[in-house]
Design a protein that fits this description.
By secondary structure, the chain is an alpha+beta fold. About 25% of the residues lie in helices and about 35% in strands. It is built from nine helices and 20 strands. Strand 9 and strand 10 form a beta hairpin. It is elongated and about 80 Å long.
């Protein structure tokens, strides 16, 4: 059974004295979904989060929750809590009192507060830390306190604004797993803001890629990575070989830099200009005498789990990921299998994408099929 649409943003625009932060956003978030707003700084993702929280009002459009218009409802009347990158914990209160703060405001019985706080401390693996003060905690522990303080109020939606940004790499990876575990255990909706593609791919049920206040693509992590809608998405999520001057000869046949390759794409028409994306890990080295495309290895970087090669193919640089080492200067053949080639509509890299009505319907069908 598919989950209901808990939050809907309908034709939402936000501008600041003519400076448009969000333009005509249409988006729904399902009950129990982990949805991530992903994009570079200034793309509008935090503005969108703040609109849902009620900290700012839209210039036009509606924000609906459970079928009710929230647009003019103040933050404290929304069943939404926010965890910020700067945790905004109270330094003069210990861990217990920080978590209990919202419950004390509601004037709940002390026994109920103790039960809820104890349960939440166990949830975030901080049992026994009740009497410690904030300055006695590590960054990761402070982040857990901030999450516990938000969750103890039993919100329908938890909004997280780059909450892992201040943590070191190892701790950040550990907290990604913890956050996903908590979200699945509690079954509440998480709306997560980040510019970190790995965080988005690791934790999300759905990723919303944004740029310049416009939604570029919505989909599962697998769809967004494997089927980017445009050059911006392809470049922003993962590394890519992008060939903007390609030609779709006919269905299932594309020409890249003068060489024709079989592919799995269709419906672009005959001899149409297209953009092509090929991920570095989908490129294989073969013997030069068996390859359509031959090049010389220019550089090699060891990346831990694989090597990253730059290969010069007659002046066109290819990026290749492989676990097999090849010496710089080696002449190699490049093999690209049909399902490694992703064909997109031709588009300038800087161009923004406005989803058409047809594409919005297609997006909804894809999400519903995934669920």
């Amino acid at each position: 059974m598919e989950n209901k649409r808990l939050i809907e943003l309908v034709n939402v625009t936000k501008d600041y004295d003519g400076d448009i932060a969000l333009e005509n956003i249409n988006l729904y978030i399902r009950d129990g979904e982990f949805l991530t707003l992903l994009g570079p700084s200034g793309c509008g993702k935090t503005t969108l989060l703040r609109l849902i929280a009620g900290f700012i009002m839209p210039s036009s459009g509606q924000i609906i929750m459970d079928g009710k218009d929230l647009t003019a409802i103040p933050p404290y009347k929304r069943r939404v809590n926010t965890v910020f990158q700067k945790y905004a914990l109270f330094p003069h209160l210990n861990v217990y009192d920080n978590i209990a703060f919202g419950l004390n405001i509601k004037k709940l019985p002390k026994a109920v507060i103790k039960e809820k706080v104890t349960e939440m401390l166990a949830m975030v693996n901080l049992s026994g830390f009740e009497n410690r003060y904030i300055e006695q905690l590590s960054g990761g522990q402070q982040q857990r306190v901030a999450i516990a303080r938000a969750l103890v109020n039993e919100p329908e939606v938890l909004l997280l604004d780059e909450p892992l940004g201040a943590l070191d790499l190892k701790l950040r990876k550990g907290m990604q797993i913890e956050l996903k575990r908590m979200q699945q255990k509690l079954g509440i909706t998480f709306v997560y803001v980040t510019h970190d593609q790995e965080e988005a791919l690791t934790m999300s049920d759905t990723i919303v890629v944004m740029n310049h206040g416009v939604i570029q693509q919505i989909g599962t992590p697998v769809d967004v990575y494997n089927e980017p809608k445009n050059q911006f998405v392809a470049k922003f999520i993962g590394e890519s070989n992008i060939f903007p001057s390609s030609v779709m000869v006919r269905d299932f046949l594309v020409r890249i830099n003068g060489i024709e390759y079989e592919c799995v794409d269709k419906g672009f028409g005959n001899n149409k200009a297209v953009d092509v994306v090929i991920r570095p890990e989908d490129v294989d080295f073969i013997s030069p005498d068996k390859a359509k495309l031959v090049g010389a290895v220019k550089s090699v970087l060891f990346m831990g789990v694989h090597y990253e090669f730059t290969v010069d193919c007659s002046g066109v640089m290819w990026k290749v990921h492989s676990t097999d080492y090849v010496e710089p200067g080696t002449v190699v053949g490049i093999e690209i299998l049909p399902d490694a080639i992703h064909v997109m509509k031709a588009q300038k890299a800087e161009e923004e994408v406005e989803l058409t009505e047809e594409e919005l319907m297609e997006r909804d069908l894809v999400r519903e099929d995934a669920e």
